[in-house]
Write a structure and sequence with these properties.
The N and C termini lie far apart (about 35 Å). Helix 2 runs parallel beside helix 3. This protein is globular. The protein has five helices and five strands; from the N terminus they run E-H-E-H-E-H-E-H-E-H. It has about 160 residues and is of the alpha/beta class.
Length: about 160
């Protein structure tokens, strides 16, 4: 497994180096690997998030819109880049951003190198989570994206 590249924020509720960071909010998880989807849902729920999971880019766009219209705003999307058939993760991110320009979308993919990370951030992703990942890394990245956005909104 790849370790997280950043440490948890100092105010994060964490009890040790590899422990989960507790948070709150709604996370939309998008991955076509069923086993990874189930495991990541469990991790995010243990962290305190309300999680909705889908397996395709089209489902991600539809779920994001449906949840927003039902007054259940999605706080973060964890999006696999290589989804089977249909929309790719990048295409789905663009469609979600067209609907909600403030959407916080985390790219997730195997083999992410520094150059690819910068390209993904330039394309509009809020952060990048390389695969394979550990539970602690998932909790750190989601927490970081949510708190960075919160602090940015407070400062604006």
């Amino acid at each position: 497994f790849l370790p997280a590249t950043h440490l948890a924020p100092a105010n994060a509720k964490s009890t040790g180096t590899g422990s989960l960071i507790q948070g709150a909010g709604v996370v939309l998880l998008v991955d076509d690997e069923k086993e990874l989807l189930v495991a990541t849902v469990a991790v995010l729920k243990r962290c305190g998030y309300r999680v909705y999971a889908v397996q395709s880019g089209e489902e991600a766009v539809e779920a994001y819109r449906r949840l927003s219209r039902a007054d259940v705003p999605v706080d973060a999307v964890l999006m696999d880049l290589t989804l089977a058939g249909g929309l790719t993760g990048v295409e789905a991110m663009r469609e979600i951003r067209a609907f909600d320009s403030r959407a916080r979308i985390i790219a997730s993919s195997g083999g992410v190198v520094d150059q690819m990370r910068h390209e993904l951030l330039d394309q509009g992703f809020s952060d990048v989570l390389p695969k394979p990942y550990e539970a602690a890394a998932v909790s750190q990245v989601v927490y970081r994206v949510l708190t960075r956005s919160l602090h940015g909104a407070l400062a604006a």
